[in-house]
Amino acid sequence: MKKNELLAALEQRLGRLHARQRLGIEADHEAQVFGQGLNFFHIENWYSVHSVIRNTLKLCGLYWRGRKNAERIVLKTNHVPSTRLPAQFDGFTILHISDTHVDMNQRAMQRLAELVTGLQYDVCVLTGDFRGATFGPFDAALKGIERLVAHLKPPIFGVLGNHDTIQMLPELEAMGIRMLQNECGVITRGEQSIYLAGIDDAHYFRVDNIEKAAAPIPEGAFAILLSHTPEIYRQAAHAGFDLLLSGHTHGGQICLPGAIPITLDSVLPRRMGAGAWHYGNMTGYTSVGAGSSVVAVRYNCPPEITLHRLTRA
Q1: What is the distance between the alpha carbons of residues 147 and 197, in angstroms, rounded to a whole number?
Q2: DSSP string for residues in 32-57
């Protein structure tokens, strides 16, 4: 798609301000290592350090073990009880896939495709970081996501992450993924409904708008928020969301024994860096991700996808 055509399509889809703001920030700060976003330092943007980490792991004899670990995606189940869940949605199941970075590790993505095939769920959500790099070409990432989507059952909802360019949006939606860009969808069973909202990246580009995403949700309705990063947990809880599904942290990806992360690359309490947690009246879940960032290795932090089963408490 040509630049003018893309801009016109994005302005029509998102509105003039959101489209121009996201594209402008991408152009201004592409691959910036220091400054911008919630973190001052962004290791994923510092590409000279990628080879340093890789070569260091090879010299230590750890690299290939880490590669194997990164390919061993596991399926987890998370139970989400709620007194606010409508009776018709008791047992409603969400397949949650995050941080695929599909062009980083082909074997891991093959494992992912095998793992999702035949799973039983009601809706699939993708919480961002489809691309491995933070700038440059994204055709390989789109092709990888298209291969994955062929193994998924609709409906599929998604949000963008800090590795993703807004230029990917038209093709992601053409694949059948309903991308939620500070927007909200409704899922209905019989005469009852729950609401599924999603925001644009809040970690690096900071173009999230929870107020806009939550605006269509009626008072007292059960509501789920998709965000690439869990760092907006306070805003989400005070906006009345019941469940926040996110990723971004990779659970640390390279962890000490006992799954202790060296860094989460996030501004939030460590207890929220992986798995289930609570804040106020809101339940949260931070996926450690199906893929790997910077270097395609994992230690003491296996990649995952998750089935969230909602139950009426």
Answers
A1: 25
A2: --BSSSS-SB-GGG-THHHHHHHHHH
Tokens 């910036």 -> residue? 32
SS3 content of the chain, % helix, strand, coil (to 5): 35, 25, 45
What's the pTM value of the predicted model, to 2 decimals? Answer: 0.91
Tokens 């690439």 locate to: 228
CA distance 251 to 159: 19
Query: 201: which 2 tokens?
Result: 């990246």
CA atoms of 286 and 275, how far apart (whole Å): 5
Q: Among candidates 200, 198, 214, which has minimal Cα distance to 161?
A: 200
Those residues with Cβ within 8 angstroms of residue 17's Cβ, 6 or more apart along the chain or in another chain: none
List helix spans (H) across 61-193: 63-71, 106-116, 139-149, 169-174
Total H helices, total E strands in the chain: 9, 14
CA 33 to chain centre: 21
For 19-53, the pLDDT digits (tens) are 988 898 888 765 554 445 555 445 555 555 666 67
- The Cα–Cα gap between 288 and 305 comes to 8
Tokens of 290: 């199906």
Query: What tokens were used for 162?
Result: 């800090």
User: What's the CA gap between 273 and 147, in Å, rounded?
Assistant: 29
**pLDDT tens digit sequence for 132-176:** 988 889 999 999 999 999 999 999 999 999 999 999 999 999 999
Contact 311, 91 (CB under 8 A): yes
- Beta strands across the sheet bearing 304-312: 74-82, 304-312, 93-97, 123-127, 156-159, 177-179
For tokens 């491995």, what's the residue? 132
Longest dimension (CA), the chain: 61
